[in-house]
Design a protein that fits this description.
mainly alpha
Length: about 80
């Protein structure tokens, strides 16, 4: 994994942590977007560098990344 991508995730998590683990969801969404740009094997290594609570907060932030429109369009395609 490139050091720059790894550091981007660590920086995004630190920034979101400053706001608090359970506040400022948009900050955690930013961390989730950084995480989404990594390959799976890089994700696992990067996530091991943050605490369990921070990993959970990033996961909660990821819930908002797709948005409601993505969820609606996915359910509509299953009905066809």
């Amino acid at each position: 994994m490139g050091a720059a991508k790894y550091q981007q995730l660590i920086d995004a998590v630190k920034e979101a942590s400053k706001a608090g683990l359970f506040s400022m969801i948009s900050k955690w969404e930013s961390a989730a977007r950084v995480l989404n740009r990594l390959a799976m094997f890089d994700m696992l290594r990067a996530l091991s560098a943050v605490t369990e609570l921070e990993r959970g907060a990033v996961r909660k932030g990821a819930d908002g990344v797709g948005g409601m429109e993505a969820k609606r369009s996915g359910s509509a395609s299953r009905r066809k």
